[in-house]
Amino acid sequence: MEDNNIQQWLIQARRDGFSDKQIQDKLEQSGWNKSQINNALGSIHKPQHDTISIKPHKFSRKKIIIIAVIVICALLIGGGVFAYIKGYLPIPFLTKSADDLVLSSFTKLAEAKGGEFGFNFHIQTEGRASDVKPFSIKKVTGDSPAQIASQDATTMSNASQLRTALVLYADDNKNTYPNSLDELALSYISKVPAQGDGISFNYSVSSDKKSFTIKYTCLSGDNAGPGTLNEKGDMTSCTEGQGSNEAISSILSAYLSTELLAFIPTDLDLQGELTVFMNYNEEESDKNKGIFSLNGSYSSAGTTMSADAEVRYTDKKAYILIRQFPSLIFFDITPLMNKWIMFDSESGQNSFIPFNLEDTQEILPAKDVTDTIRTELAHIARLAFEKDLIITNIEGSETLDGHPTHRIAITIDPEKLPAFSEAYRDDALNRHVDLKQYENMLKNLEDPAVIEKIKEFTKNFTLKVWIDQSGSAPRKLEIDTIIAPSDKVEKLKDKQIRFNFALTFDHLGEKPNVKVPDDAIDMDEVERLITGKSIEDQKLDKQTEAISDLRSALTNYERKNKKFPDSLDKLLEKPPTNANTNFTNTFSMSSLTNSYFYSYDDRTSIPEDLYTDKPFEYESTGDDYRLIYTIQFPEQTEEEEDEDFGSLFSSDYSYSRSKYVEGKNTATKQSLSLEAEVNKDTDQDGLTDIKEAELGTSKYSKDTDRDGYDDKTEVDNGFDPLKK
Question: What number of other Cβ atoms are within 10 A of residue 712's Cβ?
């Protein structure tokens, strides 16, 4: 074979899958020696410039480089995005402005149905810094809305004083009133007052002097204009409708009147923390649950008091744990320390439970109201930023509980309040919002006097918010302010008072995992631990309380229905709302509730006899009833048995034994226990009240005729207990 031909043959053989051994055997059969075969096989392993085998290698290497570059870029971009989302790496052209961050964070907060919320405060007195001065309010010329509102309040107060003086005058003068207010001076009032603006009241009396009218002028509010007051107390209110107009100014005035701080100790250190982790479901309130924790301390004059407690709420039950609490002078709660106490909101016994989340529906505004408030707050916040009323500045980054955050300082420019107020008014009108309820507040924000107070209020005031760099959720809001008491407060003239308040937010939208304590005690055991009562003592108390409640409810039922009910279950029904009774002017606690019972909770069942575990026996005769119940007295101690039965210091059970009898008792409209009445001996002279009624002796005196001998002694010895 020629060289070119053998070379092509070898390449083709290799492509056809022949191994070197097979090619070698074939060549040997053709007469080739080993040297020739080795040379031929070696040539096909050497790179050949005129073959196509090298080109694919160049193309693959370039492709690998390109792919590697793409992968590296993807990793860098993906990592950057991940770091940005997690807040580890701020990207300037993607990071929101401080205004946007604040707005979006509080939008998230408003939409959250639950989460962990904390409130921390720290109030302490400290040495006064050289640049901290007491508040000093500049006088504003002219009548501001706040000043006008204050004048109206003075008018109302002075008019009421005049009416009181006129009523006293009439009491001393055969129910007639004076011809002029001057007749009241000195005897009924030190000085005849004027209206808030200094103008005298207009007073007129009827011809028979049996009635009067005081006229005045309301300067603001819903009733701006002429106002009147008469002898019946009918009065035109000048302050109605002022609402926030007066409130804002009053709050600021109280805050800035630092003389009120005179009671604060010079070494005050008060701090506390309240944490709430809860979810609130308006549609399914029975599924609400939460965890509350409270701890704090107070230190002054060498005395330190601390408190630490936790509350868990789930399935309409609250569990309270007190770890630490200050000692109380007349009440020792040491036996309750470190014990879980269960409050059952569905139990009549514990209806006073302070942690019933279902009741928040009655306290909180209706959903449509909260939606309106949320909408208006969003517009208010937006305009506050647009008009530079609120100025934000990102101070830097800070990690809170493992969460990278933006720390943003917020300042308020009171000078921008009028522009903001006008902008909000225009915005609300364009959205067809009724501004009647906001108008006085807007006028107040435009008041120069209020603006001066706000400027003074904010001069030692800082507000900061920490916003999560991942998702813009708020993490913390902190207010820090310093007050320098007036120099008139001698003990604090070189002191300042620092107020620090912080709100923290975490787990927004999440539900708490509430673990029910296994060893919780109920309120019965709490009472036993505190008072030392026995189970038998408690049982007697509950039985007598149940009888008292039932008899009161029966009385209320008879008042409103003119008869007693056919069965005790009728007491669970709602009383008639238009009942005509002879007791319309009689105050009754049951009239404050929609129930025949005095308790504020809605009862769902009638109590049973605790000693028989059966319903009480009851029958009605229309104008009277019979209620049969059982009483079992606890075993008395020797000391209790020796006590004077009717003395001031007799035991509760000695008193109970005088009202009930052991075993069966029958209550009626007039009697708590017919059986006890039979044996009742009020004066404990050995003669029952019934026997004393027969004899004509006093059931309240052992010696009716005061001859030195007991009534019983005289009767037993044949003497007349009514004659000495």
Answer: 20
Q: How open is the CA angle 121-124-126, to the nearest 5 degrees?
A: 145
Q: How far is CA 114 from CA 280, 473, 507, in A?
A: 6, 13, 8
Q: 55 is written with which tokens?
A: 């080109």
Q: Rounded to the nearest 10 degrees, what angle do helices 436-445 and 417-430 cross at? A: 160
Angle, in degrees to the nearest 10, between helices 417-430 and 448-457:
120
**What are the pLDDT digits (tens) for 26-36?**
777 777 777 77
User: How far does CA 107 lie from the centroid of its chain?
Assistant: 22
Distance between CA atoms of residues 299 and 123, nearest Å: 11
Under DSSP, the state recorded for 42 is H
Q: Which residues contact 328 (CB under 8 A, 6 or more apart)?
A: none
Tell me the three state secondary structure of residue 625: strand
pTM above 0.90, yes or no: no
CB 185 within 8 A of CB 192: yes
For tokens 């210091």, name the residue. 649
Convert 302-336 to b/e letters by CB count within 10 Å (16 or more is b). eeeeeeeebbbbbebbbbbbbeeeeeeeeeeeeeb
Structural domains of the chain, with CATH: 3-43 (no CATH), 145-246 (3.30.1300.70), 560-674 (no CATH), 681-724 (no CATH)
Structure tokens at 208: 């028979």
Q: How many angstroms from the chain centroid is the CA of residue 192?
A: 45
Task: Identify the pLDDT of residue 568.
Answer: 94
Residue 576 CB contacts under 8 Å (≥ 6 apart), including other chains = 560, 561
Give tens-digit pLDDT for 446-478. 888 788 888 887 888 899 999 998 878 899 999
Mean pLDDT across the stretch 602-608? 83
Q: DSSP of 666-709, one letter per residue?
A: EE-SS-S-HHHHHH--TT-SSS-HHHHHHHT--TT-S-TT-SSS
Q: How many residues does the chain have?
A: 724
